[in-house]
């Protein structure tokens, strides 16, 4: 499956919808989107993950990259991660650096 990362920035909040498989071949694409939104003054990054079907270690490094690139002043919220994706995040301990939440209305 292919990978898509579509971003929208409004009022200091960057939202990126992730779709498909985030792995070594697609991680660079997410890094570029993160670099684009990082040019704006942000206080929150929301990653919509309900359509993300797979997260490899390379994909996880992209999430860590976002955390480092945006700095401690930017809250990162992961919304709607599927159980297998959430498990990967929890196993590495990265869930302690971000906010993980279910989609609203669920």
TrEMBL record:
Positions of transmembrane segments: none
Domain of life: Bacteria
Family from the record: Belongs to the anti-sigma-factor antagonist family.
Gene3D superfamilies in alphabetical order: STAS domain (3.30.750.24)
Domain (STAS) ranges: 3-106
One Pfam family named in its UniProt record: STAS
PANTHER family for the chain: ANTI-SIGMA FACTOR ANTAGONIST, ANTI-SIGMA FACTOR ANTAGONIST TM_1081-RELATED-RELATED
Organism from which the protein derives: Saccharothrix hoggarensis
InterPro entries: Anti-sigma_ant, STAS_dom, STAS_dom_sf
Protein name: Anti-sigma factor antagonist
């Amino acid at each position: 499956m292919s990978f898509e990362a579509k971003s929208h920035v409004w009022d200091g909040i960057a939202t990126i919808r992730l779709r498909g498989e985030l792995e070594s071949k697609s991680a660079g694409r997410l890094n570029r989107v993160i670099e684009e939104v990082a040019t704006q003054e942000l206080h929150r990054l929301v990653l919509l993950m309900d359509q993300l079907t797979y997260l490899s270690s390379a994909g996880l490094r992209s999430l860590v990259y976002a955390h480092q690139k945006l700095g401690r002043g930017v809250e990162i919220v992961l919304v709607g991660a599927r159980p297998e994706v959430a498990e990967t995040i929890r196993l590495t301990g990265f869930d302690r650096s971000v906010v993980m939440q279910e989609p609203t209305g669920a």
